[in-house]
């Protein structure tokens, strides 16, 4: 009986060590935004992925909370949009976490914007211009072609930080690109009636989406990027809307609808709240359904 108990203890201990080693080997990913958590899940389905923000909050404005610091401290890889989208909080988070593995982009820090051509880059920026990004518009996730560039680069980064599973990441990339490239022409055909339509939007969140689909954002609710709508600016937008060619007023899932409703009521325009990312509405479960959802919503107000 003693020998049996000893053997049982030894087996249990060995199993515990094996389980512990397996748990420790799991890749921990800190994603700044839901869209990059979703993309990482496509490429590394076995990874433990934590998302720092939701589609219901402004990714520009995040507090470096203790819970975020703790998650950053555990990360093997940090995946963010870049182009200074997270400049107000990510550097502080990285500093407080003191995680050498994700200290720089040469290690486990990944910025999507560094791996594709961003729109609206600026040679010079000053405060009078509002909250603009010299490195370009950071919301690349609404361009399916740019997301292929990002997926390729992210796969290479995954293989760098977890070389033992490089072949698995390449296989996952191939599968994702096959499904993604099959979806693109379907989305484009579905969105064909939107080409040439004109919108007023709160900000340039959907710049890449509109650029891809041929939609014209003729004005912003913001008088300058980052500034809330003012009465005088809304009055000027009302005059613009009186031309009769505006399809709708669009706001993102996390933005206030106050100014949009004021304009919509007076100009008799529908106010459409689009999901900014995964989780922005019930339909947006991943990148594929996010695209399906925004296109379907826009078609409803066409």
Automatic annotation (TrEMBL):
One example GO MF annotation: metal ion binding
Q: What UniProt keywords are attached to this protein's entry?
A: Signal
Q: Where is the signal peptide?
A: 1-25
Which InterPro entries does the protein's record reference?
Bact_metal-bind_prot9, ZnuA-like
Instruction: Reply yes or no: does the keyword Nucleus apply.
Output: no
Q: Does the keyword Signal apply?
A: yes
Q: Which GO terms describe its biological process?
A: metal ion transport
Q: What's the protein called, per UniProt?
A: Zinc ABC transporter substrate-binding protein
